[in-house]
Fold this protein.
Amino acid sequence: MRKLVCDCGNRLFFENTHCLNCGREVSWCPVCDTLTPLEAEGGDMRCTRCHTALWECANRVSYDVCNRSVLAPPGGETPEPILCDCCRYNDTIPDLSVEGNLDYWRKLEQAKRRLIYTLDQLGLPRGAAVDGFVPGLSFDFKGDAIPADGRWRSMGQEKVYTGHDGGKITINVREADEVEREKMRVDLGEGHRTLIGHFRHEIGHFYWDVLIRDRPEAETRFKTLFGDPWNPTYADALQQHYNDGPPPGWQQSYISAYATMHPWEDWAETFAFYLDLVDVLDTAAASGLVAPPAGDSVQAKIKTYTELGILLNELNRSMGLIDFLPEIVAPAIIPKIEMVQDTIIQGARNATPEAVSPRMA
């Protein structure tokens, strides 16, 4: 994440809706591609930097869960509210009649915007089904339980599982509850369990479908590094994982214990780790903490990331917090990370401008 600054010189943060120094409203301008102040002009808002007429995302106007804008439509009229290029992917939002769900939805949207920012920085293609993109990307934010007396209780027989299926990414609203998420992290023995982590993992499944499936050369390389995704079946592998757990010594070949479950999960966990890596290095370099690694060397990136992680781990431990970087990148994992990077680079090269960042006008 590059450094964001208001016109008044005050530091802005990615989630800001107002500058805390000058008080002006700020929003992500689709033309400047950064967070900028807005000024009212007639019935529109206008970016103070590129002077483009903008409308605030309908989810900001109605629910205050977004901080992005869209290009103002010609004539200033549309048959329905306009959603930004992040919110437009939502098929299902949380049930807002449930207390707390509005705040949980806001947290989900913040994490999703960070995900899409990284995808755009990498030049990865994306699009919804209405754009003709196959598979079309979409999000469902659902709950299988209602907060009551500090606990979650089932609602009928339906349970919502966080996951991906044919372009549809489903996130259980429960993951936005910090207390519940920490309980699950401890119960499952995970180093981290975060909203952005869920988004980065599930988008890894999406890009397996987009960039690897039915591509013989990519599938062959995938099988060599990650294994055959069809043997054993996903259902059999899932059952075995939850019965037996990860194999002894898994740290030498996998980025996480969950990655041992099935080749698709190994890919998604490795993909998520790569997004962690590039996002952290981008932010650290923009802040002057590290020099950005030259070129596309995965090993150089991991070296810088690890050195930074060791420092941040010690800082966290001095405050009694969990480690910033819990993963250990063993030599056998590096070729997997290199395939993730190569796949992303190739996908970006083949993407059309419209598929990299669709604009709503």
Q: What stands out?
A: The radius of gyration is 21 Å. The longest helix spans residues 263-286. Confidence is low (pLDDT under 50) at residues 149-157.
